[in-house]
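User: structure tokens for this one?
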Amino acid sequence: MTSSATSSIRGSDAASITAITRTESGRPPGDTESRSNKAADRRKDPPAKQLMWRRLLSNTSFFIIDQWFLIALGCLILIASQVQVPISQQSKKELVVTYLCVAIIFLITGCTLPTQVLLQNYKKWKIHLFVQAQSFLLTSAIAFAVVSLCATNQGFMDEALLVGIIFTGCVPTTIASNVVMTAQAHGDQALTVVESTLGNALGPFLTPLLVLMYTSTGAWYTKVLPDTGASDLGELYRRVFMQLGLSLFLPLVVGQILQNALPGPTKRVLVKWQLKRLSSFALLLIIWQTYDEAFATGAFTSVKSDNIVFIIFISIALYAVWTIICVTLSLLWLGKKDTIAVAYCVPAKTPAMGVPLANVMFAGLSAINVSKIQIPMVIFQGFQIAAGSLLTIAFRRWIRPEEEREKDENESNHTENAAP
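Assistant:
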């Protein structure tokens, strides 16, 4: 048989096979291969909807891990609203939590902050004036302006709540949350320690004077206030400075001694064992005890619900305005790390000192009116912690390029020094 005949037979066989395949499957064999390739492509490239869900789950898990503190805070406030420590045990609980938790925070801070950096920050007197003037004068003036606008309608707001807004603007900055959140935001933690301690040392002297100045205008809401006795303030000074000494300065000094005497073991315990997280847990306990006391005394149930809603919105507005002003002014002459520290020190207010100050300054008032005066401060504290925790994300992103640049410069300098 010739080669041409053989080729024609092979061609006809192939055509027959193709026809049979097309007849049995209803489509060309190439279509099956094409469909399998498309299915493989779909497996390689998930649809847009699937990618969207993956991205959403990833962002949600990141938020939960990064903002676990905020979620835990919400859970603790919810618990405090349902179950409280008995009134007879409130003073013991406040004493233990305030001293122990603040001491833990500043012991850890003392173990992590270099001594030289801490001393250098105490010498920055211009920043001290800048921060304390805003923390006391700016915040109190804005709070007084808000109250003056709200006081035009005597039937709307409770007079004790209006006094409470002024009082919140006059109290010093908080200590524990400032230190913890400045570290989380990668700000200058040493500067925060200095400004927080200085503000709380000035608070017992400046806060009563500011409150007296703003409430001596003769406005209708000031009629609720009693006369303040100077003898009561002496006891307040003794209590505040004993607390600052035992829960703040002593643990800070002990931490500095441990850091310099045993640098290796101290670093290993804090980093490897993750004991630095104790600061966050201690701060949560401090906030819980404040809300536990507020719910136990019935402070929230003694006020109309629309007044509570108004206080919440006022707290949001005050914190936003105070933060924007202090950050804007800081950017004119301070670096990013210092600006972050100022952003946490200026708008924050401390119930840890505000509550005893209120109890002493308004000793002639009924317990329910004293509780009403403290409500704006307690609500403001919850919001400042929540907002401050969320701001750590923005501040970390803002300062990251500067940190990366400093890291590259340090590595470059280390390489040059190591070169023969």
